[in-house]
From TrEMBL:
Organism: Anoxybacter fermentans
This protein's name: D,D-heptose 1,7-bisphosphate phosphatase
Positions with a binding annotation for Mg(2+): D9, D11, D126
Enzymatic class: hydrolase
InterPro entries: HAD-like_sf, HAD-SF_hydro_IIIA, HAD_sf, Heptose_bisP_phosphatase, Histidinol-phos
EC numbers for this chain: 3.1.3.-
GO molecular function, one term: phosphatase activity
Entries under Gene3D superfamilies matching the protein: HAD superfamily/HAD-like
GO biological process: carbohydrate metabolic process
Length: 169
């Protein structure tokens, strides 16, 4: 049985990205993040984070630092009675790979591992590369912030994106 999922970019989608997130205390979730994820989970969606983290290759932080940031994220969500189903990240910046968005590698890997039907799944991001990755993977897409004609839908924030997704099902 295939499942449906929502893939979320991290910075600018679930957390404020006005400054770089290089340590756990830099991660500031938007006030609507936990409730938005909770709504998706209640509607039967798996929820994943797919995030480019080229700062690892560039030496701004380590994979151990990133794990601490993501552990902190999961602790915050758990305190708000919700959770995500997994996190995929690309540590590359200059090195060629199949995982760095706009390539769909992270989404495709999660889809295969969790038996996700990408035709009924969504990619939500705040940059054109998120939309490109979602389209390349076969997902419907939502762009946050500035309009993108390639996205299936555009809106202001994750709360509005989740409202739209839930109206479509």
């Amino acid at each position: 049985m295939s499942k449906k999922a929502v893939f979320l970019d991290r910075d600018g989608v679930i957390n404020d990205n006005s400054r770089h997130v290089n340590k756990p205390e830099d991660l500031i979730l938007y006030p609507w993040t936990a409730s938005s994820i909770q709504q998706l989970k209640k509607a039967g969606y798996l929820v994943f984070i797919v995030t480019n983290q080229g700062g690892i290759e560039m030496g701004y932080f380590t994979e151990k630092d990133l794990k601490a940031i993501h552990d902190h994220l999961e602790t915050i969500l758990k305190a708000d009675n919700t959770c995500i189903d997994g996190i995929a990240y690309c540590p590359h910046f200059h090195q060629p790979c199949d995982c760095r968005k706009p390539k769909p590698g992270m989404i495709l890997t999660l889809a295969k591992k969790h038996r996700i039907d990408l035709k009924v799944s969504w990619m939500v991001g705040d940059r054109d590369i998120d939309i490109q990755a979602g389209k390349a993977a076969g997902c419907r897409t939502i762009k946050l912030g500035k309009q993108d004609p390639n996205a299936d839908y555009c809106c202001k924030n994750l709360r509005q994106a989740v409202d739209y997704i839930l109206r479509q099902t």
